Amino acid sequence: YRAMGIGYRAKFMSESVAKVIDRGGLPWLQSLRTVPHAEARAALLELTGVGMKVADCVCLFSLDKADVVPVDTHVWKIAVEYMPHLADSKSLTPRIYDSVLAHFKDKFGSHAGWAHQILFAAELNTFKDRCASLSLSVCLSQLLFLPVSTTLFALNYSVCPQLNFQRQASV
Asked: What burial class does residue 149 get, using C-beta atoms within 10 Å of its C-beta: 0-12 exposed, 13-18 middle, 19+ buried?
């Protein structure tokens, strides 16, 4: 793994691969699709070097758990705009992590994970800059690689600059 440029994570990866193989390999990983998020996350957290964000990324992007929101410092900053009471928090604790996840699930339901992806992308300067100079239809077409329900989310919550996306504490 080090030869692939993975660096310090090489040890974690080789240990995690060994654990996955010990648990049954691909069938074990695929079985995590059929269990609730909390159970899948707990199983993934047993792998060396896997934290809550990585476990939730795997749940969202590989285990068909579209309601899961991986929370990192960037997503936390977005969440603070919707949950102002978090602004005074000094770090992203497990309790805060789970409250952000719960908030997104409450607001966006079964596609909360994909909704968070749109909000995250909308905060990226490259997306803002690109969309700001495009027509509304072209800007929205940037979202077409996402599931239809997620693109509808973007329309409903006015993520594109041309729709005057306004953040509100009650959102």
From this structure: middle
